[in-house]
Amino acid sequence: MTSLPLTPVLVGPTAVGKTAVVAAWAEREPITAVSADARQVYRGLDIGTAKPSAALRARVPHLGLDVVEPGERYSAGRFARDAAQWLGQIGDTGRQPVVVGGTGLYVRALAEGLFHEPPLDLARRDQLRAWTADLTPARLAHWAARLDRRFAGGGRQRAGRAVEVALLTGRGLSWWQEHARATGAMRPWYIQLTLPRDALHRRIAQRVDEMLTAGLVDEVRRVLAAGVAPHAPGLDGVGYRETAAMLAGRLPERELRDAIVVATRRYAKRQETWFRNQLRGGSGSGMRDAGGVWTLDASEPPESLAARIVERWQEVTHPASRISHPAQ
Predict the structure, then answer these.
(1) pLDDT (tens digit, 9 = 90+) per residue, 253-293?
(2) Of 8, 16, 65, 9, nearest to 271 (Cα)?
(3) 172 and 109 in one domain?
(4) What pairs with residue 139 in β-bridges?
(5) What whole-number distance in Å separates Cα of residue 139 and Cα of residue 316?
(6) Which of 135, 165, 181 is the last residue of a domain?
């Protein structure tokens, strides 16, 4: 059996500085980034998802961006299948793939695999989707928890998926994940960026201000005008749902900025909790082994972080090159 490739995976909460590190990393070696971000897959949702700039994307190839239209579901399983192909394509180019993102389930799906999807009656599934589309996010989450006692949340799309699987197969999504797991497409070498809480909160506030200045409200207005429902996949994310609520008159405009900041802080906290509890291989100030987790303080300049990452990556992948040969 062929060993899966060891692949660096840069993770951390929103606004921690992952994109800046990727930009600095690309100055040191030819890399291609694979975005593991459940929001950046949507075309036209650029400002609120903090997609890499056009200038950076022109310099550093990125895959996993602009994959589907707003309103279309894009699951972790689909990401894992797509990303496995992207990793193979990158390997053929001779560039180094780097998985980058804050969506933990996407990262885990690619690294460990997800369950083989059970057969579903397509007609009944469509009927269920029509029904769940009329439910509020809170009501949909309520039904997901009723049908799968181990449902851990994760947004409207994941709640809808939990309802579908439970009603169409007779077993909860968590059961299928536990009993029918597939294999992953890579061996992850995790680099986890962290920041003290106050510093992360300052970066979040700064990012929200930049998004609003860049035209987040107009971006949401354009998508809604194109016929996308306010609670559709893509628009149900942080920043978009608050903006949609403001445009609908449910949130005063003067409260929009603070509402997005608060929601983003909560989202970042959930990301940090997920990475702390779910990443395999241990954590700490140094990487224990290949496949472990190396935690770095993102307070350092991106250039310094990139230099350390590249040096450690060379140690991991080419250990023999660091051993001095005896004199002949």
Answers:
(1) 999 999 999 999 999 999 998 898 877 543 333 333 345 78
(2) 16
(3) no
(4) none
(5) 48
(6) 181
> Largest alpha-carbon pair distance within the chain?
80
Q: Residue 327 falls within a domain, yes or no?
A: no
CATH number at residue 64: 3.40.50.300
Is 123 part of a structural domain of the chain?
yes
Task: Please check whether residues 76 and 109 belong to one and the same domain.
Answer: yes
**DSSP letters of 189-202?**
EEEEEE--HHHHHH
Asked whether the beta carbons of 217 and 47 are under 8 A apart, the reply is no
Instruction: Compute the distance between CA of residue 252 and CA of residue 311 in angstroms, rounded to an integer.
Output: 50
Look up residue 274 and give its two tokens. Answer: 């997920």
Question: Are residues 271 and 104 in contact, defined by beta-carbon separation less than 8 angstroms?
Answer: yes
CA distance 205 to 193: 18
- Please identify, among 166, 181, 196, the residue that sits at the C-terminal boundary of a domain: 181
Cβ-based neighbours of 22, under 8 Å, separated by 6 or more: 10, 31, 33, 52, 56, 60, 98, 100
For 158, how many CA atoms within 13 A lie in the half-sphere containing its CB? 18
Round to whole Å and give the CA distance between 321 and 317. Answer: 9
Separation CA 128–CA 190 (nearest Å)? 38
| Burial class of residue 159 (count of CB atoms within 10 Å of its CB; 0-12, 13-18, 19+) | buried
Task: Report whether 229 contacts 235 (CB < 8 A).
Answer: yes
Residue type present at position 267: Y
Helix-helix angle 137-147:156-169, to 10 degrees: 40
> Is this model's pTM higher than 0.85 or not?
no
pLDDT tens-digit readout, 21-79: 999 999 999 999 999 999 999 999 999 999 999 999 999 999 999 999 999 999 988 99
**Nearest Cα to 234, choosing from 310, 303, 156?**
156
